[in-house]
């Protein structure tokens, strides 16, 4: 447990820890008052239609509570989701969701192709992502050696996704079937958060498995891939700058 | 401690009237033509759902933007403000419970409540308010939504009260209890 906790903290070291979204089955005023006892504030709560899952957006989260929430996350009792920094970040993430109202946990052909195109496009630029199954699709995490301003991160994500969407379109698929969100997004602050790796999804109880070119890994292999990615695939700032310049240049040329 | 859950739109404010009567101005921020804008305003006012099987579309973004406009512009009912202040003065725990997507409207909602001097303890979003009240053991729910009035008063659920509006005068028998003025509600819940 200690090593997993340490690994999670190291991987996500660049994300602010003073605000978080906590997803759990626990609820009730006694529980809420305990959660807030150390000084955290509830921005808002949310209950799923079934009444089984409760989500709490917290601010002013004290450090001790972050540790408690991470341990609960690792014990599969809850999901911890973090927000991104307002100005710069040392992580960025593509969130690809199946955009259908129904049966949206299915991996549709558009999703399979888009995730492949994005992986290959980013890898060519030296920014290989860690791809994690998310419930309605995938999260593609890229970890940087140092923080980069949000506008540059967003432009790279937007440009590389536009390229990949074009590839999807050329193959005759409808890009509207997938919703792509980018984190951080300079147009919005503290609105959306992302679930961290290392737990079961609170709703479907499926572990956040890593997707490699060979397919989805099991839980122990996913942990290994997570660690390996952090050690071997963290992106240098110069590499990122080169990737960003290449993406921007390709759009100026109209390709 | 006594706890009450109170809805915002068409309960504390005049959201539907605001949506119906406001002249919304087209701008480039909507990313659609003026003709599409006018068509979408009409669709939204008529209560049209999304015209396809997709979650996130041009129309859903439009609805979100217009709803946010209404959240800002809606007028608070004076008797509702007075009622909410009475709850605070009498040490009730007050939970605002709404269908709004608070991920995107948390700040707007808080600002509107603050500007109208409406006190509350917690803010929750859910599409199932009766189940929420059951789960959180909340004895009273004030809400205009027809579904909650038809299905209310189940064992373990809250007593439901609603501000009577024209949409409630349909001949359907509601289990919830309607009021014209929040002062009536004050009398009922303090007994």
Distance between the termini of chain B: 15 Å
**CATH class label of the largest domain in chain A:** Alpha Beta
Number of domains of chain A: 2
Spatial ordering of strands, largest sheet of chain B: 3-2-1-4-5-6
Proportion of residues in extended strands of chain A: 25-35%
CATH topology of the largest domain in chain B: Rossmann fold
Helicity range of the residues of chain A? 25-40%
Q: Which architecture of the largest domain in chain B would the CATH scheme give at its second level?
A: 3-Layer(aba) Sandwich
**Residue share in helices of chain B?**
40-55%
Strand % of chain B is 5-15%
Question: Could you provide a short overview of the structure?
Answer:
Chain A is α+β, with helices and mostly antiparallel strands and 255 residues long. Chain A is built from 7 helices and 11 strands.
List the helices and strands and how they pair.
The complex is a heterodimer of chains A (255) and B (191).
Chain A: H1 2-11, E1 20-24, H2 29-36, E2 41-47, E3 54-59, H3 63-74, E4 78-82, E5 88-98, H4 109-124, E6 130-133, E7 137-149, H5 150-170, E8 178-183, E9 194-195, E10 210-212, E11 215-216, H6 219-232, H7 237-252
Helix pairs in contact in A: 4-5, 5-7
Chain B: E1 3-6, H1 15-21, H2 34-45, H3 58-73, H4 78-89, E2 93-98, H5 102-115, E3 122-126, H6 129-135, E4 140-142, H7 146-150, E5 159-163, E6 177-179, H8 182-190
Parallel strand pairs in B: 1-2, 1-4, 2-3, 4-5, 5-6
Helix pairs in contact in B: 2-3
């Amino acid at each position: 447990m200690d090593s997993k906790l340490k690994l999670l903290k190291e991987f996500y070291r660049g994300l602010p820890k003073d605000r978080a979204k906590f997803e759990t089955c626990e609820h009730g005023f006694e529980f809420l008052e305990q959660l807030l006892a150390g000084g955290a504030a509830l921005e808002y709560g949310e209950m799923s239609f079934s009444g089984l899952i409760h989500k709490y957006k917290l601010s002013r989260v004290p450090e001790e509570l972050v540790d408690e929430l991470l341990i609960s996350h690792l014990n599969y009792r809850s999901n911890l989701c973090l927000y991104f920094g307002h100005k710069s970040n040392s992580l960025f993430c593509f969130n690809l969701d199946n955009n259908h109202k129904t049966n949206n946990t299915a991996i549709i052909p558009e999703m399979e192709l888009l995730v492949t195109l994005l992986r290959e496009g980013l890898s060519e630029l030296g920014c290989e992502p860690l791809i994690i199954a998310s419930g309605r699709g995938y999260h593609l995490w890229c970890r940087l050696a140092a923080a980069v301003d949000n506008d540059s991160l967003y432009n790279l994500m937007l440009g590389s996704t536009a390229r990949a969407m074009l590839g999807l379109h050329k193959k005759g698929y409808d890009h509207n079937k997938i919703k792509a969100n980018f984190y951080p997004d300079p147009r919005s602050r503290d609105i959306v958060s992302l679930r961290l790796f290392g737990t079961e999804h609170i709703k479907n109880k499926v572990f956040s498995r890593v997707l490699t070119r060979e397919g989805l890994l099991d839980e122990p292999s996913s942990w290994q891939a997570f660690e390996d990615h952090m050690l071997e695939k963290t992106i240098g700032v110069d590499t990122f700058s080169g990737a960003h310049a290449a993406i921007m240049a390709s759009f100026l040329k109209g390709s | 401690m006594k706890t009450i859950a109170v809805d915002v739109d068409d309960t504390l404010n005049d959201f539907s009237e605001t949506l119906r009567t406001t002249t919304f101005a087209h701008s480039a921020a909507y990313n659609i033509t003026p003709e599409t804008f006018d068509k979408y305003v009409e669709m939204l006012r008529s209560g049209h759902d999304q015209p396809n099987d997709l979650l996130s579309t041009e129309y859903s973004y439009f609805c979100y933007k217009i709803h946010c406009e209404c959240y800002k512009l809606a007028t608070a009912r004076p008797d509702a403000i007075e009622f909410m202040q009475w709850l605070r003065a009498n040490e009730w725990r007050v939970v605002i419970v709404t269908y709004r997507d608070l991920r995107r409207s948390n700040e707007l909602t808080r600002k509107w409540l603050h500007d109208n001097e409406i006190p509350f303890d917690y803010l929750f979003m859910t599409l199932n308010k009766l189940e929420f009240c059951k789960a959180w053991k909340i004895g009273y729910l004030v809400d205009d939504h027809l579904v909650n009035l038809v299905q209310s008063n189940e064992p373990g659920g809250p007593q439901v009260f609603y501000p009577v509006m024209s949409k409630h005068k349909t001949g359907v028998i509601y289990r919830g209890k309607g009021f014209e003025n929040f002062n009536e509600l004050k009398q009922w819940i303090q007994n």
